[in-house]
Specification:
Layout lengths: L4 E10 L2 E11 L4 E5 L6 H9 L6 E6 L2 E2 L5 H7 L1 E3 L12 H7 L2 H4 L3 H4 L4 H18 L15 H14 L4 E5 L7 H16 L3 E5 L3 H7 L2 E6 L2 E6 L8 H8 L2 H9 L1
Parallel strand pairs: 3-8, 3-9, 6-7, 7-8
Antiparallel strand pairs: 1-2, 1-4, 4-5, 9-10
Helix pairs in contact: 3-7, 6-7, 10-11
The protein binds adenosine-5'-diphosphate (ADP) and magnesium ion.
Length: 260
């Protein structure tokens, strides 16, 4: 069986700074993979390369057997690969509801309605219904009328997940979804990600919180300076000297890590 996502020998440098070194990553449909590593290890860059926001220098990426590394972010999103950002920026003049609605352009394409004007009203109704449902599921109905820039950091993260879900992804890439999120909202977020996964969406999640990782992920991949240094179950991370060295900087913290 083909992997849903196959990253083969991907390399990326910014100027003289090589950020990804001939990286391989296979993700099967239905997995939740945690992507870990110290700051600057290349996690966000890898998500950017997979989702087409940053071109790679070398290597190839297949999604469901189809090469995507030559396509732009818009085309990749239409194929079913979406990402959320570490610090989602929200427009100040659009409401939360408007932002969710606008995200559907990634799915339908801005020209679809011009080419097939008869379907505009139906498309608009379907888009509105889907946006309302996602806002409800992601606990945002209460703030749907507010300017998107005015909601809390945690709510912005939920909104960015709603936006990504508007394009009905098969693979969702989440960049630090719980960073800066209030602990109360964090449990909701985990529950929502489990629900999205149960709907058949495969997830790759960049995350630092080990409780979150253990709760959510079936497998972890650890990067260090753009190299993969571990690919194992969450419980096995604490036994890897390379991970402890790179990620935690020594074996004293390792004890804390193992007990976290
Ligand atoms: N657009 C960019 N231009 C130049 N350097 C970048 C850019 N994006 C990331 N980098 C560099 O790539 C390295 C990895 O960054 P990043 O992928 O954001 O790491 P992580 O998400 O693991 O913290 C860092 O050294 C960072 O400075
Ligand atoms: Mg990052």
């Amino acid at each position: 069986m083909n992997a849903l996502l196959e990253v083969r020998q991907i390399a990326k440098a910014f100027g003289g700074n090589t950020v990804l070194h001939d990286l391989d990553l296979h993700v099967n449909a239905g997995e939740i993979v945690g992507l870990l590593g110290p700051n600057g290890s290349g996690k966000s860059t890898l998500l950017n390369v997979i989702s087409g926001f940053t071109p790679s220098d070398d290597g190839e990426i297949l999604f469901d057997g189809v090469p995507i590394h030559t396509r732009d972010a818009y085309a990749i999103s239409r194929m079913g690969v979406c990402r959320t950002f570490q610090l989602p920026a929200m427009p100040s003049r659009m409401t939360v509801r408007d932002v969710a609605m606008a995200a559907s352009i990634a799915r339908h394409g801005p020209l679809d309605s011009l080419i097939r004007p008869a379907s505009v009203r139906r498309l608009e109704m379907q888009t509105r219904e889907r946006a309302e449902r996602l806002l409800d599921e992601l606990l945002l109905t209460r703030v749907a009328h507010l300017p998107a820039a005015s909601i809390s950091g945690g709510q912005k993260k939920l909104l960015s997940i709603a936006c990504a879900m508007m394009s009905e992804p098969r693979l969702l890439l989440l960049d630090e979804p719980t960073a800066g999120v209030h602990p109360n909202l964090r449990n909701d977020l985990v529950a929502q990600l489990k629900r999205i996964h149960a709907q058949g969406v495969t997830l790759i999640v960049v995350e630092h919180d080990m409780h979150f990782i253990r709760d959510l992920c079936s497998r972890c991949v650890v990067l260090d300076r753009g190299n993969m240094i571990a690919n194992c179950a969450p419980d096995e991370l604490a036994q890897s000297e390379r991970v402890l060295e790179a990620y935690l900087g020594g074996s004293r913290q390792a004890q804390r890590f193992a007990g976290a």
